[in-house]
Give the backbone structure.
Amino acid sequence: MTNNNAGESLLEVMIAMLILTFAFLGVMALSIALLNNNSLAGKTNFATNIAQMEVSQLNCLGVTNVEGDFGVPSTYSYIVSPVILTPDTRNKIAACINPALAVGGPQPGGLLSAGGIGITNTYSVTITLAENPNPNTTGAVDATVDVSWDGGHHVIVMDDIIA
């Protein structure tokens, strides 16, 4: 009687296929997680850019104009959207206003260009202004810019002192 070990048995092939299936499923799960994290990073990046633009505008306006235009303490909210719902309509000091925030939508030069910042999600911006409690900083206003999306699940907050 002779043993023929030259071929693979059906059991060995099935075990190898099972191992490869689990490896493939692991790679697919990793790919999905990477896509979700990449999407979240893009949204966070746009929210941070919006908050930075708003802080720059407030600093450009200066404390006198911020107090005159908004009043302190106060809260001011608007929407930055691919389809403008309630654009930022501050226009009293045009040199300080970034028109991209009032437009949102496609990036300049892109298809259907509206001169916006290229967002594809709706962002809610809330600015909270309060008197600066530091006695060494006279004539200053505390500004908190809150940019959120997806029902407030993700929030970017920037604090600034407007002098």
Residues 145 and 158 are 5 Å apart (CA to CA).
